[in-house]
Amino acid sequence: MTEIHCLPGTMCDERLWQQANEYLDQNILLTHQAIPFESSLDDMVACLLKRLPDSPVNLLGFSMGAYLAAALAVRHPHRVQRLMLVSNLATGLPEAERQQRQVALNWVAKQGYSGIPRRKAQSMLAASSRDNEHLIALIQAMDGALGEASLVQQLTASLERPDLITRLKELKIPIHVLAGTEDSLLSVSDRQRFKDSHVAEWFDIHTCGHMIPIERPQCFAKYVQACFTE
Q1: Has residue 203 been placed in a domain?
Q2: Pair 87, 66: CB distance under 8 Å
Q3: Number of folded domains in the chain?
């Protein structure tokens, strides 16, 4: 049995992996690891280290969870056997996005949080999936289940995010990256910089936005199966 510990993205829960599970062989076990409810990345990494087995693990992260997985790997490389980053390149948070998050936090503090807007959910999908009501409902349902406190914690704790590409290059473990070709959250410059660094084996997921595990679950499962059992 190959166990893979999976870290979700901002405002995502274990439903992120459910459909992909249907396409995986029975010898693959995806173990959900919720984002720790801590006030900083350092504290989240410390919390995960206590949760995970002492022996080196297979680690997969999606979006913010991918950055967290990368942070754990570069700080404690002896605890990671193989790493997969999905929809995140372990880069620093662009200043524009940092400012947007601060604006969102200020708004929530004043007005409260009533859930992710439909338009925001659609923006995380490829153009061909933006009218897929099942996907939109799933994104909104995961967001609603976690609620305002989790949103504030996750956005606040991840504001300070150093670039990890150089440190990832120093690791002696296999690293794989899955990136949707229509993921607007991954800039062209960051994609090229990561590819040029030769840090990892790179896979483009075509006709796909940010939400790879739910938008293209069969394709996602294919790469997970191949990369963690090779």
Answers
A1: yes
A2: yes
A3: 1
Nearest to 213, CA basis, from 52, 66, 19? 19
Domain with 214 in it: what CATH number? 3.40.50.1820
Per-residue pLDDT tens over the stretch 2-23:
999 999 999 999 999 999 999 9
What is the Rg, in whole angstroms, of the alpha carbon atoms belonging to the chain? 17
Instruction: Count Cα atoms within 13 angstroms, Cβ side, for 218.
Output: 0
pLDDT of 159 strictly over 80: yes
The answer to whether residues 166 and 190 touch, using CB atoms and an 8 Å cutoff, is: no
Residues 48, 49, 53, 59, Cα dihedral to 10°: 60
Cβ atoms of residues 23 and 223 within 8 Å:
no
Bridge partners (DSSP) listed for residue 179: 204
Q: What pTM, to 2 d.p., does this model score?
A: 0.96
- DSSP letters spanning the chain: -EEEEEE--TT--THHHHHHHTTS-TTEEEEE-PPP--SSHHHHHHHHHHHS-SS-EEEEEETHHHHHHHHHHHH-GGGEEEEEEES---PPPPHHHHHHHHHHHHHHHHH------HHHHHHTS-GGGTT-HHHHHHHHHHHHHHHHHHHHHHHHHTSS----HHHHHT--S-EEEEEETT-TTS-HHHHHHHHHHT-SEEEEETT--S-HHHHSHHHHHHHHHHHHH-
pLDDT more than 70, % of the chain: 100
Residue 143 inside a domain? The answer is no
Q: Rounded CA gap, 207 and 127, in Å?
A: 8
